[in-house]
Design brief:
Layout lengths: L2 E7 L11 H11 L2 E6 L4 E5 L2 H19 L4 E6 H9 L13 E6 L8 H7 L5 E5 L2 E5 L13 H5 L3 E5 H13 L1
């Protein structure tokens, strides 16, 4: 059965939208996926399921969380091949020395309009970015928390995103290898 990467946006941040990984795992299993493995408290999981269920999974999981916790997070289900393509397309090899300096912003849908003028205006002199295959890569060696560009990515691309740093992406890739 194919492996999928599940990413939730905005859970367990600043004490808001609390969701234990045990609950996340329980909801995923109840939906019908197999072999659930979670990683850290920010809403990352590797599951095995068929493509049909994977397509419905974001809505089904968001509904379960809303029912039990009172909030509805954004949920992405990314195929193993698409996730690995995002890794192989990484244009910032220098980030391996500081894996928290590179963030992969995964889009919920293809971007139809990119506000290039806003990208150029918000990008600091130390930051670099690339948009390829529905992933926005942001290399921010001074830290993502200081990046004006990072906080506006959704607006610039015109679609919601969820970001993971290279360290998390690498760990999820290792977990995919184990499935």
């Amino acid at each position: 059965m194919p492996a999928w990467v599940i990413l939730l946006r905005g859970i367990n941040v600043g004490g808001k939208h609390r969701l234990s990984m045990a609950d996340l795992k329980s909801y995923l299993l109840a939906i019908g996926v197999k072999q659930v493995e979670t990683y850290i408290q920010s809403g990352n999981a590797i599951v095995e399921t068929d493509a049909k269920l994977a397509k419905a999974l974001p809505q089904l999981l968001a509904e379960q969380i809303e029912l039990h916790h009172g909030f509805r997070p954004m949920v992405l289900a990314i195929s193993q091949s698409k996730f690995r393509k995002a890794i192989s397309n990484n244009p910032f090899a220098q980030a391996t020395e500081n894996p928290k300096s590179l963030h992969f912003f995964f889009l919920t849908a293809p971007s139809k309009t990119i506000r290039q003028e806003m990208l150029n205006e918000l990008c600091s002199t130390t930051e670099q970015y690339l948009f390829a295959d529905d992933v926005f890569y942001l290399y921010a060696p001074d830290g993502i928390g200081r990046s004006k560009l990072a906080e506006k990515v959704d607006k610039i691309l015109g679609v919601p995103t969820t970001a993971r740093n290279l360290k998390t992406v690498t760990q999820l890739d290792l977990m995919l290898t184990d499935t």
